[in-house]
Amino acid sequence: MNRDFLSIVTKLNESKHILVVGHIMPDGDDISSVLSAKIGLERLGKEVLAGIDWRIPWYFYEFEEVNQIMTFEQIKESGFKPEVLLILDASSLDRIGRFQEYFETTNVFVVDHHATNTLFGDHNWVDTKFGSTAQMVMRINNELGVPYDENLATLNLMGIATDTGFFKYSNADETVFSDATKLVSLGGKVYLVSRIFENKRIEQFKLLSIMIDHLKLEFDNKIAYSFLSKADYENNNCSEDDSGGFVGELRSLKGVELAIFLSEYVTDEVHISFRSKDWFDCSKLATILGGGGHQRAAGCSLKGDLHVIVEEVIREAKTLFLTSSRSSVNLAE
Ligand code: AMP
Ligand code: MN
Ligand code: MN
After folding, report:
1. What is the pLDDT of residue 3?
2. Structural domain tally of the chain?
């Protein structure tokens, strides 16, 4: 058994007041992990608050438990004094936003599956073998003896399903399927999870068409990229939440190895998502640009003019693509 896993479980068991936090720009794995840990620890009689320092995309509210996730302001105002800060799915301290404030006064436990994790906690259980952090939370809950019902099983399943692209990506290994099977046998419902994403507003279709209008291809169609400006969102009554999954559409193009989607979520602040198909290391590119992530999915955020950032990022991507493909077995094609 992993030493950090055991110390985290032991210390969680001994603690009474726990603050569970996830990362900024939260995704399904993050929300699932935070809620599964919060609800699990509460079932053991602990006082637990959960926080994410970012707006949660509207479609996750299909699960009413998402309302339990508090803002930074709400947690500050509550006067809660946690002994433990449990940080989930975040690869570095800056990823938790203003919750960094609790770093000095708490015992910090980090549970994550990113290769780019900086091991910034007092105890760090970081294992890149897991397709999702939700599976790691499931192990913590099991070790602590947390009882599962349908709700908890479905919430926990959400992280596994979303981080593996609903069991389609290369991280969908045997453990992913056996963990999912276990949660399904406990009452977890994949169809309830997938419904979150099959609940689109018509405005999102329009936004997608604009993203496709902006699409450009490079290197014999091996790199596909596109962008949306703040104005594109506003003119279509959308926010950046509404473009979740667009980068996956770019990657789905035949022949594309690297897909890049740039999203101006605040004027002059751009989030960039990278996705690759077979060999390109997205985390390397994201790290060069100040972000992080996994080999097949990574991201970063940059400040400045959107069109300047598009140029910069594509230049950097092309350079790395050329130097890495030189040593790649796939170059022959
Ligand atoms: P995204 O493209 O935002 O869906 O993110 C893809 C992956 O990269 C996820 O695992 C994120 O947690 C990670 N990621 C995204 N942005 C950053 C960042 N600025 N720093 C570190 N990791 C990131
Ligand atoms: Mn995440
Ligand atoms: Mn994750």
Report:
1. 93
2. 2
261-289 per-position pLDDT tens digit: 999 999 999 999 999 999 999 999 999 99
Q: Is residue 246 part of a domain?
A: yes
Here the contacts of 196-200 (C-beta below 8 Å, separation 24 or greater) are 196/28, 196/59, 196/60, 196/62, 196/63, 196/158, 197/59, 197/244, 197/245, 199/59, 199/62
117 Cβ closer than 6 Å to some ligand 1 atom: no
Mutate to test the pocket of ligand 1, among 29, 95, 227, 296 (most ligand atoms within 8 A of CB): 95
Amino acid at 137: V
- Residue where one domain finishes, among candidates 102, 125, 146: 146
Q: Note whether residue 247 is domain-resident.
A: yes
State the pLDDT at residue 1.
73
Mutate to test the pocket of ligand 1, among 91, 117, 295 (most ligand atoms within 8 A of CB): 91
User: What's the 235 CA to ligand 3 centre distance in angstroms?
Assistant: 31
Positions of the chain with pLDDT under 50: 329-333
Would you state the pLDDT for residue 327? Answer: 53
Domain final residue pick, 122, 146, 170: 146
Helix (H) or strand (E) holding 204: helix 202-213
Q: Is the CB of 272 under 6 A from ligand 1?
A: no
* Co-location of 100 and 31 in the same domain: yes
- Element containing residue 49 per DSSP (H, E): strand 47-51
Based on the fold, state whether residues 9 and 138 are members of the same structural domain.
Answer: yes
Give the pLDDT score at 326.
Answer: 56
Structural domain range at position 301: 202-332
Query: How far is residue 19's CA from residue 11's CA, in Å, rounded to a whole number?
Result: 13
Query: Which residue, judged by its Cα, is nearest atom 13 of ligand 1?
Result: 293
Residue at 168 is within a domain: no
Q: Is 121 in the pocket of ligand 1 (CB under 6 A)?
A: no
At 332 the pLDDT is 35
Q: Which atom of ligand 1 is nearest to the CA of 94?
A: 20
Q: What does pTM read for this prediction?
A: 0.95
Whole-number Å distance, alpha carbon 194 to ligand 2 midpoint, is 17
